[in-house]
Amino acid sequence: MSPRHLDWEGCFNARDLGGLPTTDGRMTRRGAVVRADTLDGLTAAGWATLLEHGVQTVIDLRNDDERGPDAAARPAGVTTLRLPLDGSEDREFWNVWESGPQFGTPLYYGAHLDRFPERSVAVISAIARAEPGGVAFHCVGGRDRAGQIAMLLLALVDVAPQDIAADYELSIDRLRARYAARGEEDQGPLLEAFLADRGTSAGEEIVATLSGVDVEARLRDAGLCDGDIAALRRRLVGS
């Protein structure tokens, strides 16, 4: 188990993005940003543990039709922002990417960033501008949409692509328990086989995506401002 894994009752794939090395020799800060699977299932004890971890802002990346009621009351002190990442109304894009297992892999990250850069910018700006305290962002499983945002955030603070890829791959093991708890088939082996048939892996695709794009320039072109970049770096790595 990764030491960054967070044991929040009712959540299976939450981990702190602190403790990762940057290319200039620093480390990302623990307690600043958390990636997770859906927080709807948190028990009262799970929400209490989230608060103990310092989280004050939750960013929900899911589409409207994916949301359900909370299993336990969401604490009044937690601010929730709903910023769907997909852009699912664009059927020209999604008729291609939803047509097979590729949607459950980083294969679509580069294409999504090309098509909808403003959606990633909205999430990253929200993290940068959040009130003091920790920020947790989540999708459904905490692997793909959360993985894309984690990839961009960590690239902006100069975490190496190989370390970003390793963080993504931690979700493969963590999601087994989620599938089992929900009585669903583990999709991990299917996705790994799909990628292997194409001569790649999830980690290799993360590295390839980051090698092929200047993340900061792409996000700046889509509206990410100097102040947000500076605030994000202060939040994640300090001054």
Structural commentary:
- The chain has 239 residues and is α/β, with parallel strands linked by helices.
- The protein has one domain: Protein-Tyrosine Phosphatase, Chain A.
- It contains 10 helices and 5 strands.
- Strands 1-2-5-3-4 form a 5-stranded mixed beta sheet, sandwiched between helices.
Key traits:
alpha/beta; 45% helix; 239 residues; 10 helices; Protein-Tyrosine Phosphatase, Chain A; five-stranded mixed β-sheet; single chain
Instruction: Count structural domains.
Output: 1
Supply the CATH class.
Answer: Alpha Beta
Shape-level CATH architecture: Alpha-Beta Complex
Within the CATH hierarchy, at the fold level, what is the topology? Answer: Protein-Tyrosine Phosphatase, Chain A
Structural class: alpha/beta
Helix content range: 40-55%
Cα shape: globular
**Which segments are poorly predicted (pLDDT under 50) over 5 or more consecutive residues?**
none
Figure out the total of helices.
10
Beta strand %: 5-15%
Relevant CATH superfamily = Protein tyrosine phosphatase superfamily
Termini separation: 30 Å
Mean pLDDT: 96
Over all CA atoms, what is the radius of gyration? 17 Å
Order of strands across the main sheet: 1-2-5-3-4
- How many individual β-strands? 5
Largest sheet: 5 strands, mixed
Please write the string of helix (H) and strand (E) elements: EEHEEHHHEHHHHHH
